Model the fold of this input.
Amino acid sequence: MEKSSRVIAVVALCVAVVGLTLGFAAFSNTLTIESSANVKPDASTFNVDFSSSESALETNPVTAVTEPGELTTGPATISNVGSPTISGLSVEFTEPGQKATYTFYARNEGEFTAFLKSINYANAAGGSAPRKCTATGEASEDLVLAACEDITLSVKVGSESAVTGTNASITGHTLNKDASEKIVVEIEYAADGTRADGEFSVEFGDVSLTYSSVD
Done:
């Protein structure tokens, strides 16, 4: 995931010029003090991180909840070093109607109120769309491409959501200082989805959540 956007308002404070005039008969002397100041907040004070806990900033691995039954999934890893990222989300489906759900939190560790501005899907690596499917073995490419359309990656942040192939532009979504909000990521194979006749892999592009200090 890309680093959350940091839009900081730089406030310029102009201190009024002070003029002092001293008059002595035909002589005069003018003293002028000119001053100004710029306030440039440290960008590090705007800071939204990923967390595995709602009540504190923690980066423990997150395991998926699967249904129906247990599926093989990868533990998701959180890193807030540099650009906050979550990696390692994966699931092995065996048939349509299966789903893996990961739950994380966005936590405002900064000094400013943060506003969620967008949820964006990038194209899969080496592809021209957010999702790329590749047949392995002797699987029919046509069936794989049809089944591929029935596997989705959805992201929900509070009441805001987006699904594979769509981008959400958001306003009025507030995350206060020292507060957290739930992020639910679902990888799902639709119940009425097409069945392929062999194994295939599905790759998704990165999903970015953009927060700003202004709405």
The mean pLDDT is 82.
